[in-house]
Specification:
With 476 residues, the chain is an alpha/beta fold. It has helices spanning 56-74, 79-95, 97-108, 112-133, 161-174, 189-200, 215-222, 236-246, 271-283, 303-314, 335-350, 382-385, 401-409, 424-433, 468-471; strands at 19-20, 22-24, 27-29, 36-40, 47-52, 147-148, 151-155, 178-182, 208-210, 229-233, 252-256, 262-265, 295-299, 354-356, 372-375, 392-398, 416-420, 438-441, 460-461, 474-475. The strands form five sheets. It has a seven-stranded mixed beta sheet with strand order 14-15-16-13-12-17-18, sandwiched between helices. It has a six-stranded mixed beta sheet with strand order 9-8-7-10-11-19, sandwiched between helices. The protein has a three-stranded mixed beta sheet with strand order 1-5-4, with no helix packed on it. α9 (271-283) links the parallel β12 and β13 (295-299). The longest helix has 22 residues, at 112-133. The structure holds 7-thionicotinamide-adenine-dinucleotide phosphate (TAP). Residues 32-475 form the Aldehyde dehydrogenase domain. Belongs to the aldehyde dehydrogenase family. This is Aldehyde dehydrogenase family protein. The active site is at 256.
Length: 476
Amino acid sequence: MFEYAPAPESRSVVDIKPSYGLFINGEFVDPGDGGMIKTVNPASEEVLAEVAEAGAQDVDRAVRAARQAYEQVWGPMPGRDRAKYLYRIARIIQERGRELAVLESLDNGKPIRESRDVDIPLVAAHFFYYAGWADKLPYAGFGPNPQPLGVAGQVIPWNFPLLMLAWKIAPALAAGNTVVLKPAETTPLTALLFAEICQQADLPPGVVNIVTGAGATGQALVSHDGIDKVAFTGSTEVGRAIARAVAGTRKKLTLELGGKAANIVFDDAPIDQAVEGIVNGIFFNQGHVCCAGSRLLVQESVYEPVLESLKRRMARLRVGDPLDKNTDIGAINSAAQLDRIRTLSEIGSAEGAERWSPPCELPEQGFWFAPTIFTGVTQAHRIAREEIFGPVLSVLTFRTPAEAVEKANNTPYGLSAGIWTEKGSRILWMADRLRAGVVWANTFNKFDPTSPFGGYKESGYGREGGRHGLEAYLDV
Ligand code: TAP
């Protein structure tokens, strides 16, 4: 597994400061009523920096700055001028792409190949895409004069730190809102670098405010009276608490929550191509993906060849240093997440499923988990029902397309699904019946800023991306 290790991408391309304040009203300021928290590199457990933990007063200061910027500058600004700022931000993201990718891999643990080739290009693409909408809102199909909502409070998770920021900030700003965003406690650094990019782009002070901190900071933000809109991505449990907190207020709410997607392989699918899609579906980003294909449904007649080929492919996956360009699976983002993955995997074995991982040496320091599959899984098993949010795949079988649909839909979630088959008619038949916000056919984990993304059932409501993503930030 570790035959050859070329020089890792140098971390010297990024300048990490020992300590960061909060980004409020266009400048970095010390927290008034909060303390400091450390953020670590999950691949080494080395402390990367300390960041401010915003208290309720700090959040209040950020919301006031956002309100003033909304009323005096950003709200009244013509769309074509807002677009100029968004294009400028998009270009700076491209120019500083290498720095952003290295910082993302250091703070999150994801392989540099993914942060460099997937995350950062998509971040820039979101800003370019929504910049294009800023002066065309009257033509977006929401009536002749859609209005911004005001100040948006946005809370994001740690799995795609900068990409989730882009999904939230780009449409909000294009529609004329100002924002206060809280990144996840374990991955604040690229949001703070983004704050520097806002300064570099001369974005008017207060349009974007970044308040770092833990859950309590998020809670203070979503329950603040001065915000008009809450956008949250994270767990279903916290999403429920937020829905309760905003119920009966004037705040509009969108929720992007968990998932337990079925990746469905029919017997006519090209096996090698399907296996690549299975691997990408569950091992991309260590499986820390809300729409990960974490339940593999294989048609019984091809179960043996698919499993054999999948195991062969898994044996070639390289787990290790996220900054090494040959790494396929990086570090698990935190000790807490590693613990959750371990616990659910042990429950999988205890409930009778058969566990398999390729031979795999894991580094001693840091948080690691070998790519793992469970076979002999039934729908009653917890590993088939609960989101593991790690590199762990549960394998089930089916006989008929109707049974595949029934099993795929047998989950409280409904974010995504994948279908592998040569038959176009079957793809359409399945897509009509799968209760999932996104259905991929003969591919998986494909994202594009022009496509709306979001869930059914307990995966949340509202859409991000595409024209639909604007609606969440407009009074239509
Ligand atoms: P959460 O624990 O829900 O955290 C998400 C964010 O909310 C973090 O910034 C967190 O702060 C903050 N937060 C925690 N408690 C809060 C509260 N009471 N009020 C307001 N904010 C609060 O989720 P996570 O562990 O970061 O992410 C994993 C989950 O997110 C998975 O279930 C995954 O499926 C889901 N997810 C969904 C999507 C989409 S698009 N549907 C995308 C990514 C992830 P701290 O980080 O400081 O705790």
